[in-house]
Amino acid sequence: MKMARLRKFGIALIVGGMLLAGAGPVLAQVSDPVISGVDVSIIPNGIRLLIKGSGFTSYNNVTVQNGSTAKTVPAASATGAAAAANLTNLSPGTYQITLSTSRGQTSNGITATVVEVQASSPPPVPVPSSSPAVPLPSTPFILPTPTFAQDIVLPSARPTDPNNLPSPVACILFGARCGFDKVYTAVGDSLGTGFISFGGFVHRYEENIEDDNGIKVDLKNRSRVGATTETIKVSIQHDPRTREALAAADYITINGGGNDLREAREKFLQGQCGGSNNQQCLREATDRLKQNWSEIIQGVTALKKGSNVKIRGLDIYYPYVDEDRASGNFAIFHPYIQEVNGHIAAALAANSIPLAPVYAAFNGASGDIDPAGRGLISFDGFHPNTAGHRVIAGLLRAIGY
User: Fold this and answer.
1) What integer is the mean pLDDT of 171-196?
2) DSSP class of 319
3) For a disulfide at 35, which of 53, 153, 196, 390, Cβ 3.0-4.6 Å?
4) Whose CA is closest to 254, among 364, 153, 344?
5) Could you give the count of Cα atoms lying within 13 Å of 293 in the half-sphere of its Cβ?
6) CATH superfamily of 153-399
7) What is the pLDDT of residues 22-55, one digit of tens each?
8) Any idea where the domains of the chain sit in the sequence?
9) Sheet holding 310-314: strands in order across?
10) Record: fold of 4-116
């Protein structure tokens, strides 16, 4: 039997059975979808699963379950043969992992065991005799237990020297800065989470701030998969955790709007957009997005009025250039993208907030280049890949501090 072991930040993941060969315990025997294997990689405070198989849809969910405790996260699939998902803040235990499709079908399953490694006298972790031993980490890491999935806040990509930390109780209960020099808060959608990438722009920018300034940064990532400008706005206005993170921030990045436009585009393609020319939903989404961006900026600046905070805004790239050009729809969608990005740039400038020009970097100065052709889009055809996130982090870094 082969076993794969991964460990980071005091977490060991043991994937057992015949997972790497593609067969795990069957949870629900269905003919569609089928999991044939999975690649597992480490992300800060969690794991990324790239699930291989067949019969996946564009919108899937991955569920990990330990007894009565279950967590479900979205998993994107572009080809029907692979789906990717991020799982963070897993408590120790053995989990059953399944994938369900938007058709309501559930796959066969796999098992995984997460073990919390202690700072001293760490418990032994089985290692196959054919694999080299992996040193156990000496730095403890405290796993937060979120109330619900949307409350997960990813920690810094690099753990802080424990000798400089105040007590864990002070860090957790009283919000002590735990030896950090500055706080970086990100608000946005899945772009900010680094979804389907190996190192999102938020974590890369955090590391740039640290490396370029010789400081330690506490990252408070309030980005959410699937967020629209409406949900981002509401979070800034009413969510205590988001407001506290913004109020404490020395650096802030804002992104959002891609999901707003994608939803409207899908309605248009289905002939359900409304209006005499089937563009009513595009017009409404554009107007709503512009208004929400104005209120997002207003909400952030109100929380930071009079402070020396560094706020940066990102405009929206257009991932469907070639597809829409081929279907004859580029001339319809392009003006809406231009209008939205023009408003974002103007609203940021009116508040003396620098713009990271993601649109120009991904789509060219005229907005007519497909970013996939530049190698910046992941397999799902929508989110940036690792190279894309590297470009975005570079744009933020170029603005300066």
Assistant:
1) 77
2) T
3) 53
4) 344
5) 30
6) SGNH hydrolase (3.40.50.1110)
7) 333 333 333 567 877 776 665 656 666 777 777 7
8) 4-116, 153-399
9) 217-221, 182-187, 251-254, 310-314, 355-356
10) Immunoglobulin-like (2.60.40)
